[in-house]
């Protein structure tokens, strides 16, 4: 019998403790929408870079669009040589480097992170670019 009394008293919540739990629950419910909104606003910003690639100079002979939205290094090889590039979307948090060799080797053209949307970029001296490295902060 003593064991049962102990068990029952162990699960008993005092009025003061119940009041504190009730108050904490109310505060959590009050501030939860604000906290969720702040988290969504913080995660809403993503680094963005959209680049059209072309196999000819002056942004002729469209090949593909590279669209980056993740912060990190994004490296790759083009399926074929690329001679010109056009920035179609940017928030200036990403930098772009294109390389003459595969796997980010050889001569390079560094666009940095100061790019104007719509401007055609590339070499006019016959260079062909085989790979790219995009870094988004």
Question: What is the secondary structure topology, with strand pairs?
Answer:
Elements: H1 2-10, H2 15-44, E1 49-54, E2 62-68, E3 72-82, E4 84-90, E5 94-99, E6 108-112, E7 120-122, E8 129-136
Antiparallel strand pairs: 1-2, 1-4, 3-8, 4-7, 5-6, 5-8
Question: Please, could you describe this protein's structure?
Answer:
There is one protein chain. With 137 residues, this protein is α+β, with helices and mostly antiparallel strands. The protein has two domains: 2-44; 49-136, Crystallins (Gamma-B Crystallin, domain 1, Sandwich). It is built from two helices and eight strands; from the N terminus they run H-H-E-E-E-E-E-E-E-E. The strands form two sheets. The chain has a four-stranded antiparallel sheet, with no helix packed on it.
Task: Briefly say what this structure is.
Keywords: Membrane, Transmembrane, Transmembrane helix. The chain crosses the membrane at residues 21-42. The protein is of the alpha+beta class.
Q: What value does the Rg take, in angstroms?
A: 28 Å
Give a short account of the largest sheet. Answer: 4 strands, antiparallel
CATH superfamily of the largest domain: Crystallins
How much of the sequence is in beta strands?
35-45%
| SSE pattern | HHEEEEEEEE
Instruction: Look up the CATH topology of the largest domain.
Output: Gamma-B Crystallin, domain 1
